[in-house]
Amino acid sequence: MSTNKSLISVALCTYNGDRFLWEQLQSLALQTQLPDELVVYDDHSSDHTIDLLNKFAQTVPFKVRIFVNEQPLGVTKNFEKALTACKGDILFLCDQDDRWAPEKIARMTQFLEQNPSLNVVFSDAALINEKGESLSTGFWQIVRLHPPQLEQWQRGESIKVMLIGNRVAGCTMALRKSFLHQLVPFPDDIPEFLHDTWIAFTASILDQIRYIPERLVNYRQHAAQQVGTQPKNLRPLSFRQRLVRPHQLKLIPYQQRQRELLTLYKHLQRVIPEGHKNLKIVEEKLRFLTVRANLPNNRVLRIVPVLKEWIRGNYHYFADQDATAIGIFMTALGDVLE
Description:
Layout: E1 8-14, H1 21-29, E2 37-42, H2 49-57, E3 63-68, H3 75-85, E4 90-94, E5 99-100, H4 104-114, E6 120-128, E7 134-138, H5 139-142, H6 147-154, H7 158-164, E8 173-176, H8 177-183, H9 195-205, E9 209-220, H10 239-244, H11 247-268, H12 277-293, H13 299-312, H14 314-317, H15 325-337
Parallel strand pairs: 1-2, 1-4, 2-3, 6-9
Antiparallel strand pairs: 4-8, 5-9, 6-7, 6-8
């Protein structure tokens, strides 16, 4: 049982996970600081997942509570239920197919106890394959959370990093139960925007999330997983292809991102105080995307709105972290010409 003053809960979500589940469960049993409870929400598995969970519950000194959904909910809502059911002060999100480093609970619990102003902490993870063998890379490398972005994070500018893309996997995360009350219900109406992104994004706006620069999880990559880091092999268009394609075709991804960010913004409004400085950054990104998503067909008429956004600094401020000065200029020029 936990020896610190904070009660520790692990929220594990399962779905037909019997292939790797036992290895994950054993890594929980081998923690240097055991949790006070393991709360499992199974999304209506049809394999031996429940049998393995019941077997595990008989071998550990902490409480294991197992719930089975009558109908599948999907990963986001399943984690919402699991986390809400937890009774601990500090909550850990757990996937069914990874392995935790023995010191994971102890390190992250200690961090939150020593930093009472923070609500979320996360770590890096080592990537492994289906056989549990190292892929010789880390999660932060894959999601481009490099030293410059980590420095931004420590300066309280994590929202700028998160606006480019999520950098925090749920399996690397711990949060306070008191913060969870602000987050529920989790949004489930934004494509590819999962529970961990919602937690990390909201905590970033509030500047209440920091990291431990250690790989405290072995994050397994395999074909059957519901969430992972498998790359999307998209070939970029050539400059000629960009110039000759229909203008409306260019606008489609901007329109999609604008709709998604607008939906996210509406969810954030119920959580973040009005006028918060970082919420204003989201508002400005939304306004910028709205301009780009509605650029007119006439190239001449695009010059003024693009020039205004250039002068406001938005092409620079919201550029990808790897963009060069020339690349940023070409983005603005492309908005005029394409």
